[in-house]
Here is the input.
Amino acid sequence: MVDATFGGVPRQDGGADAAGPLPRVPHYHHVVYRGGAGPVFRIALVNSLLSLVTLGIYRFWARTRLRRYFWSHVELDGDPIEYTGTGKQLFLGFLIVMAILVPLLFGLEYVAMLFPEEAWQQAIIGFVQVFGFLFLIQYAVFRARRYRLRHTLWRGIRCNQTGSGRRYALRAFGYLMLTFLTLGLTYPLFRLKTQSYLMNHTRIGSQAFAFDGSAGALFKKWLLVWSVLVGGIVLFVLARASSGGGNGGVPFSLHDLMSATGSVSILALLAVPLLYAWYRAREFRYFAEVTRFGSLRFASAIKARRVVLLYAIYYAVLAAAAGILFFVLSGFIAGFGEGLMGSFEGTHAQQLQQVQVIGIVVGLVALLIAATLVGTLQPVLVTHPLAHHVIGTLTLKGQYDMEELLQGAKMADRRGEGLVDALDVDVAGF
Amino acid sequence: MRSMSMSLASSTGGEHLQASGRFNDGHTAARRRVSVAIVGKRLEFREREGTQHWAWPLADLRRVGEERRGEDLILTYVETPDQEDLADARLVVQGAAFRAALLAAAPQLKGERIRRRAVWRPAALTLLVAAGLVAFVLYGLRPAAQAVAAAVPVSWEVALGDSVYDQVLDYFSLFGMQEPHACVAEPGRRALEALTATLAEGDEIGYPYRVVVLDDDMVNAFALPGGRIVLFRGLIDFAERPEEVAAVLSHEMAHIIAQHGVARIMEQFGLTILLDFVTGGGGVITGGAAVILGLSYSRHDEREADSLGIDLLNQAGIQSGGLVSFFERFAQQHGTEDSFGEIGNVLSTHPADGERIAAGRAAARDGRPAFTEEEWAAVQAICDVTEPAL
Here is the structure.
């Protein structure tokens, strides 16, 4: 229905229906995204509502449905890619991971309870928790990507993520630690090294991708984001110090923002997410350049400005929605609370309880509305236009004989992405 | 846009609707152009420029990419249903007329059927699970927690209560109150211990009761798992008769015997795990639900402790009308006062509504006094000697 909106991207039908025999090697390869905002919105809305009424249990099927939509509207040389994962697999994978993780976490809590006095033991337990968690996240990212690749097909040829999750996690964790030690300066190195491992172990059937980049080209771009972030933090601290600092133990107050330094610091910190989107767009362009698939090379004409605008719109819409929600609910609470106080007969304790319960219920409702809103808006305002832009500006250079592309080994991966779900990691927005 | 090639073929004997398509055999990414026809209960297709041909039973056909627009049908077939996600041969058939014919012959390929399977069935199932979960939280969690609490060894309860006791005292000294002092005047202590021992005869489990009076104005008392009971001086000052102190003491003992504290902990624990499982760790949602649930159970617990406490007094032959007079007077004097913000105010956990007073009045029996006159005087003077409670 929204075909016409795909300006700039010529519709390609792959020539399959041409009268003559199929050319053995097409003259060029092309990748297109044909999704429409309307269908994405409809799917996202139904998904959000179903997730809402099922206390979120439906989310695994919701995610599957969106993926099926997005995947099946990406066409490579005229044939769509395919997502074969299922909600059931994601759900079971999540249950399995929770069954392992929950006792582990409570075990740690219990151990911490055994030594309430010993500060150094508490420190060790805290250390294990934080770093164990960071390590697990890396492992989870790998496993989630592997699940998605193993459930991605093109012309019946399965993709795969080879390599070892443990090795990847160790490597990613190491570079993450380095990033911490350098106060974030070496973040591009972390990005490059992880991407390198993932891409060099990514396959379509028998053919592996090759990724050969260096972080040097990215540092200058990252430095911009980094200096705004660090500058914002420093200014914020300065503003707080000059406004008297204390605020009676309140960590943050509007008063801090009144000064010029304060407002500049807030502006800088608000700009960081958008600058980060800009960095990731530039990074994508570079990553595409240094990626090869057999004799194929890639080039991306992704526009960082476009990506930033996209996120800016999304954040603005969310902020507006949050503002409206806040005013409506605070009005509701004020009105309802007053009416309650006036009419309710009984002791203060009962009133207090009622007010507490109403406050919590209203808070929960607000949260659920917010979650539903984000669940509906994100695919429409971010994922879909991003896919449209990123894939629309991606070109494949060179030729590749698709008859040489053979099926890979059969690799079932039915545990889904449990770890990612359990740790609540957002992998690439899907 | 797409040219549709359709003809009436006679090669297979009958007249069959034919369509053109492309086929990937699942071994290479090469596309083969094929002619496709429905023949009986099978979908047959053969290479246009070659000799190979295939036949897939209509019943085993599956459709992929069903969310796509357009007339194409992308098909695969599965030999065994559980291998569905591993089937990788793909046949794309083109043309609206053929598509309609195929959907009629193999109805499992229809979009609405697929959506029913992939969307509405899981939606209904997860809705059922969610409803079951809510029902369990509302009606099953408490009994389950109570059952688990009953299985907990007394020594564990004692250890738990002791650790919470230390934390509570820390909390008091942290939040504005002066450092907590315990009242330790010997005669008063002995009198309280004697009453506790008498009441404890009605406790079959035999918790090691340790009653502490804290030197504070609060009209309050609380019990911790395993036998720790804390009374505040304000409560003893407020009491007009020994029976009122006895009523509060027996009420707190009843909380311990009925394992309300342990059950509450188990319940919050279970609820946290359960909700984290379904919501994927929505900390705020879980916390909010836990508070609501806790509030709704606290009333039940108070009523149970009222009736059990009065039973303890009746069994010991002690006059058990103290609870009623205590509550009535408390409601009169404090009911209209602003009780917000006062930590652990007796009313915030002990809502004294008319129903409780009526129930207490119905259960009350006459008996001997809780303390002799000397004992009562000693209890009232218990804070003449104090020492740091920590």
Notes: Residues 41 and 219 of chain A are 37 Å apart (CA to CA). Residues 214-289 of chain A form one domain.
